[in-house]
Amino acid sequence: MLLVVSGGIAAYKCLELIRRLNEQGIKVRCILTTAGARFVTPLSLSAISGERVFGDLFSLTDESEIGHIRLSRDTDLVVVAPASADILARMAAGLANDLATAALLATDKPVLIAPAMNSRMWDHPATQANLCLLKGRGIMRVGPNQGEMAERGEAGWGRMAEPAEIFQDIVAFFGRSNRLKGLRCLVTSGPTIEPIDPVRFLANRSSGRQGHAIAAALTAMGADTTLVSGPTHLPDPTGLTTTHVETAREMLAACQAALPVDIAVCAAAVADWRPAEEADQKIKKQSSHGAPALRLVENPDILATLSAAGPKRPRLVIGFAAETQAVEENSFLKRQTKGCDWILANDVSAGSGTFGGDDNTVQLITAEGSERWPTISKQAIAERLAERIAETMGTAS
Length: 397
Ligand code: C5P
Prior knowledge:
The chain is α/β, with parallel strands linked by helices. It folds into 2 domains: 2-177, Rossmann fold (3-Layer(aba) Sandwich); 184-396, Rossmann fold, CATH 3.40.50. The protein is built from 14 helices and 22 strands. It has helices at 13-23, 42-49, 60-65, 68-73, 85-93, 99-106, 119-123, 125-136, 163-177, 209-220, 248-258, 302-307, 327-338, 378-396; strands at 2-5, 29-32, 53-54, 78-83, 111-115, 140-141, 145-148, 155-159, 184-189, 194-195, 201-202, 224-229, 241-244, 263-266, 273-275, 296-298, 316-323, 342-347, 359-360, 362-366, 369-372, 376-377. The strands form 6 sheets. An 8-stranded mixed sheet has the order 13-12-9-14-17-18-20-21, with helices on both faces. It has a 6-stranded parallel sheet with strand order 3-2-1-4-5-6. The radius of gyration is 24 Å and the shape is elongated. It starts with a strand and ends with a helix. The structure holds cytidine-5'-monophosphate. Residues 188, 248, 266-268, 270, 272, 299, 301-303, 319-321 line the site of cytidine-5'-monophosphate.
């Protein structure tokens, strides 16, 4: 594991964290930032970890022996504790102006942050916006807690989580991270857009949040994941391959190129129809002709195609059903007509807040029956689904 220690009074707590991790057999290699070195010394970190401590991006000996790229890849997990407001801002902006941020930018491994800062810095909209961005990229977080600050008489949110809490999250990560190791997953996400002419297209309201969260949750369990996404405003999750597409036909081609996979989750809101012709030039408004007619043709059904892929059929194919009425009944039917194994059914009727919202209420429809999940965040649904997938693949293999 790679531990990045940035500047903050809580830096001393990472000594206790390293000791616990070592006791558990987890080897820790440290990067100490310049500000971090004001609070804890390289000597104490290397004494506790039993490893040399890295700090300088431009150290010739470090770069020749082990560069920042290798440092960030030769690990299963990167933990930033304490994560100061400054390092969070630099991570969010993609800066690489010291060894810690260069390694964080270069890594293809999951990242866990343990923020620690004064409560006003924590509450500041800039910090909150950075956290939001980092969360969107699949970065995990533990804490902060509420309590007294280092500054006398100040209290609030911003105290770094205790070493025991960070330790627990790391151990849980390693427990989870092996469950889908060696398995390949394909996830579709977002809308597709279907061109009418060079400037106009048909689209839908899918934000891609559910699909992206599922791809990130499967990756967090160790799956080798390909995310095929239509246009969204979301950043690409880290640690997996994202293929960007626009139309349903491009999405199908990208999915077929990703085969064979063990698990396919079709969470994209694929346009059912596309304009029969795509005009080469922008269609002109001609008042004498009235509005042009839009003739539609059916798009390929990606879920049904993957479910019928013959020898390349994934062992587990999961689809979504977005229904506005008779959700359970229609979803049972959909499971059969599409030929998939599971359907996650949700209600997208007006007022349900599903499209673009944070939360979702779903039912899992399998060959055995249906199971209603409570209203939880899309992130929690993704984690619960990944958990169910791991259980099933575990018993199936
Ligand atoms: O048929 P309907 O759009 O309701 O089915 C929804 C499910 O089918 C989703 O899992 C969606 O990703 C998938 N789908 C697809 N290709 C289509 C239409 C839907 O993969 N053309």
